[in-house]
Amino acid sequence: MKWDEFFVTGEPMIYAAMVSIVLVSIAIPAGLTYFKKWGYLWNNWLTTVDHKKIGIMYIIAALLMLFRGGVDALLMRAQTAIPENGLLDGQHYNEIFTTHGIIMILFMAMPFIIGLMNVVVPLQIGARDVAFPRLNAISFWLFFFGAMLLNISFVIGGSPDAGWSAYFPLASLEFSPTVGNNYYSLALQIAGIGTLMTGINFLVTILKMRAPGMKLMKMPMFTWSILITSVIIIFAFPVLTVALALMMLDRQFGTQFFAMQNGGMDMLWANLFWVWGHPEVYIVILPAFGIYSEIIATFARKNLYGYKSMVYSMIAISLLSFLVWVHHFYTMGHGVMVNSVFSITTMAIAIPTGVKIFNWLFTLRRGKISFTTPMLYALAFIPIFTIGGVTGVMLAMASADYQYHNTMFLVAHFHYVLIPGTVFGVIAGFHYWFPKVFGFKLNERLGKWAFWFITISFNVTFFPLFILGLNGMTRRMYTYSASTGYGPLNMLSMVGAVGLTIGFILLVYNIYWSTRYEPREVTGDPWDARSLEWSTPSPLPEYNFAITPAVDELDAFWFAKKTNKSLFEGEYEPIHMPNNSGLPFIMGIAFFFFGFFMVFSWWIPAVVAGLVILGTMAYRTFEQDHGHYISVEEIERTENALRGENS
Amino acid sequence: MKRLFPVPHVIGFASSLLLSLIALVVIKFDLTFAMGMTILGVTALVQAGLQLFLFMHVSENEDKKTLFTNIGYALFVGLVTIFGTLFAMMWGYNMG
């Protein structure tokens, strides 16, 4: 490692990024000092173990990463908008499509979903927090510092540049000698450990902490989807952990797991990556299915059609998701038998997914539909996602895939699945649950403007890519000659990308506008919804439920409203809550430095940071922390303030 | 005395150490491949059972069904990953 390679040099855009990073890192502490907010930040956010606040931090981080990944996407579209463009050179383009993929999947989609499940799941099951609140904070800080570690790579040392899938031998030390792919193995490892712990946390929370009477088959569909997602996380992420560890050993410690000689096997990386990677697709999409189920049932004013078949099809998807990974590399030279088997398993996934699509349509049938912003996203999801699904079945046919493989057709397909599936889902959920957390809705008019911009521009951006792919344009090519004829459609795609940018800016502007001007909401149930989270006051008290609700059916809150029954019988009792702790934050910082030193193979500092991590664990082992009680008087005071006289 | 000294756990701990020692036989002696794998497989299974039932009390929980479903799922995913990888990368790979 030479010191002149430490900072990335020679690119005006990178210099601008460095300047802005320096300015922001001066501005934030300066602003905090000026407004005297250090204590507030530390006491209310950095040390919190409250699932709602952790959820909010996840979502803020996800929105930031959405813009980081979005700028990457804009640069890619700008570079390919005209033939022989010189905006980015090949290396910079490689780094940008790599970080775009990593950031959008692991640091945007994942935290957005985990943020929503943090906020919503305990409320939907009538719990006061998750099963392991401290662990939840550790999960967040590991994700956060993992994401930060990856993000500094583009100014310090260089970003990973072998694609988000980092295939060997390209990602090996021999062909990728910069530290870029060390960032990949370490940043993803740190964030991945956090995600794995989230999976365990929510599995236990949902299995053990449901309100009395809420049998598994009486849980809201979103909670069901998170239960299944947690199971997939627990069984898929260890494979990533192992694969990343082997990658690190290969790149930094001279092992030969993915080498092309000495008994290594380069293709084994692709295999292990997709053993995790395909279930990962369902990890980000099943929660969105759950969100749509909630939203469609609420705004069609009907109970969800085919509840049981929804649950069984999700279980089927979760099992099938572990049986299809080879379809990501049909062209790697497997025999006919292998490709046929994985073609069939892949197509089989279309069956449970189709069941869900029809269930949503039947829920809508003869419903009293109100076209709110979240409902619009849910409605747009169905046809757009179906295009993604149908092209997926096309790609699933191994022999046909030899034509489509690694073309823009594939790129169009997975954006047609992931954007309506995941991004529309989390945005819909964001609009839907926003009033629960903050006590006011996002403005509907602005929300709908953003919706139309995003939906139309999405199709303008990605539909041309299907045609470009069929015409032979491969993915990840940073430029092309005019004679290929790819120019006009790429330009059209660029126009769409600009429209998407406007849409997302409107979405964020809406948060600002609504915070200032949107009328405050007092009922706690602004959408006249069905599940338990809407029985609480908004904004929420720390303890969520003053009295644990008793539930005897699905959509108990809805029927309680209809029959004027109360779900909350009994007297206030002191509530036991977990204490805040600074330890998870400190642990996250230690992990960040450990990762950073490891990236540059600076062993002694890495060992020191590693000892700090072990120290925080040892401290926790011997720490006496019994939580605290909220007294009955305080509960009465809070409840009267939040619910008013008529509580 | 009986209540203070957890006999089953000590026996369990001793036998898990013993099982590890037996597994070591495979590299210490010149065995055939099949013999070595059989020893490893059997000791691994017994070891896993010992851990799950004696130390982790799998069968003593009221949520027995959930735990066994989870273990079943883990076995499914583990076996699919191992044999699927062998199938895709070795047995079914087109070497020609």
UniProtKB/TrEMBL annotation, chain A:
CDD domains associated with the record: Ubiquinol_Oxidase_I (cd01662)
Catalysed reactions listed for this entry: 2 a quinol + O2 = 2 a quinone + 2 H2O
Location(s) in or outside the cell: Cell membrane
Transmembrane segments: 12-35, 56-76, 96-123, 135-156, 183-204, 224-249, 311-330, 342-364, 376-398, 410-434, 446-469, 489-512, 585-614
Domain Cytochrome oxidase subunit I profile intervals: 36-552
Pathway of action: Energy metabolism; oxidative phosphorylation
Membrane topology, from the record: Multi-pass membrane protein
Cofactor: ferriheme a; Cu cation
Keywords noted in UniProt: Cell membrane, Copper, Electron transport, Heme, Hydrogen ion transport, Ion transport, Iron, Membrane, Metal-binding, Oxidoreductase, Respiratory chain, Transmembrane, Transmembrane helix, Transport
Cofactor descriptive note: Heme A3.
Keyword Translocase: no
EC code(s) of this entry: 1.10.3.-
Pfam families per UniProt: COX1
UniProt function note: Catalyzes quinol oxidation with the concomitant reduction of oxygen to water.
Stated family: Belongs to the heme-copper respiratory oxidase family.
Record-given protein name: Quinol oxidase subunit 1
Organism: Sporosarcina quadrami
Name of the gene encoding the protein in the UniProt record: qoxB
From TrEMBL, chain B:
Bilayer-spanning residue ranges: 7-27, 33-55, 67-93
Recorded superkingdom: Bacteria
Keywords: Cell membrane, Membrane, Oxidoreductase, Transmembrane, Transmembrane helix
Catalytic activity from the UniProt record: 2 a quinol + O2 = 2 a quinone + 2 H2O
EC number in record: 1.10.3.-
Membrane topology value: Multi-pass membrane protein
Subcellular location(s) of the protein: Cell membrane
InterPro entries in the cross-refs: Cyt_c_oxidase_su4_prok (IPR005171), Cytochrome_c_oxidase_bac_sub4 (IPR050968), QoxD (IPR014250)
Family: Belongs to the cytochrome c oxidase bacterial subunit 4 family.
Biological role: Catalyzes quinol oxidation with the concomitant reduction of oxygen to water.
Name of the protein in its database record: Quinol oxidase subunit 4
Organism: Sporosarcina quadrami
